[in-house]
Amino acid sequence: MNNFKKIFICCTEQSGENIAFNILKRINYKHQFVIDGVGGSKSKKYFRNQYFDISEFKSMGFIEILFSVFKYLRIINFLSKEIVKNKYDLIITIDSPDFNYLLVKKIRKNYFNNKIIHIVAPSVWAWRKGRAKKFANIYDELFTLFKFENEYFNKFGLKTTFMGHPIYHTTISNKDISKKYIAFLPGSREVEVKQLFYFYELAYKILFNNNKNNFEILIPTLPHLESFLLLKTNHWKIKTTITTDTNKIDEYFNEVFVSLTCSGTASLEMAKRMIPQLIIYKFNFITSIIGNLLVRVKFANIINIIANEMIIPELTNFNLSKKRFENEFELLIKNTKRNDIQIKKINKFINYFQDNKSPYDICVNRINNFL
């Protein structure tokens, strides 16, 4: 076992889990590796030890995290001891910048001097720009999803590599296939799905009253959310497909007309697929107030931020009200011209988020260099 290279990988949410899985399956296992860490069900098969599952990390927003802070500190204390004890050759942290920063800071204080890299830069361009310097003090390299992010960290001496966004691997929907679905994408965390489901119920009622074209509803989701969504939709009279089958996802999305999307990675995937969408997101009241004071950008969606224009309609926090939502959703399902303009404008920006290579291949090549 002494000849094995040891890697510790830490991701605490679904988007990070997707990146972790795609990196782990590309590593050349002709070399001798031992991999431990924190991840989800897909990454688990590559781990010798999975210390925690991503289901342990359900918080979002300031207030939600505050109520879980002691739990997370206990996890950080446990993981830091394991990392220092096992003397891993490489630490890879993915997304979840606040949790991972505290973890890495703690192991650095315990004289861990081996290489540590982070994948997915914290959004210092949107808020809390001081994090750039803090990350530079403890990480050896940072992998960014967006080209413009590099400059925020380079000025503090942190090596950055633009990997591009995972939407590189998202398939563009086939325009020639007839459309029968309206997609509901309510998020990957249980807390956000519960927070937003009121609006998905409203959308269902609007569709039920306007369903002249006999559209069906598609809800792609994750296994830990399936039972909740089945329960919440069991009274719906519009045919609704709730699926966790990732192998069929491209096939399903080929038949999607429009999407009601929880802000995040899913919204970029819909943009890449050229599916018109309405984006919604909502924190609790106190978190929303704090966010309004700290956030320095006007929009939630990254395409809107880059364009400095609301190309994709979005309703977030205090702007997400019943009346506004009903008006916007009616436009989404009825105003074809408006949707066509959305897609035309998206086309000008979508290539900004991807390089000519797979982001996972870029990461694996650099990881091989570290080892």
Provide an overview of this structure.
With 371 residues, the chain is an alpha/beta fold. The protein folds into 2 domains: 5-164 and 355-370, Glycogen Phosphorylase B (Rossmann fold, 3-Layer(aba) Sandwich); 181-353, 3-Layer(aba) Sandwich (Rossmann fold), CATH 3.40.50.2000. Helix content is 43%, strand content 18%. Helix 1 crosses helix 14 (359-370) and helix 6 (190-210) packs across helix 12.
* CATH classification class of the largest domain: Alpha Beta
CATH topology of the largest domain: Rossmann fold
Q: How does the helix and strand content classify structurally? A: alpha/beta
Give start-end ranges of low-pLDDT stretches: 284-291
CATH superfamily caption of the largest domain: Glycogen Phosphorylase B
Range of helix content: 40-55%
Q: Sum up the overall morphology in one term.
A: globular
Give the averaged pLDDT, no decimals: 89
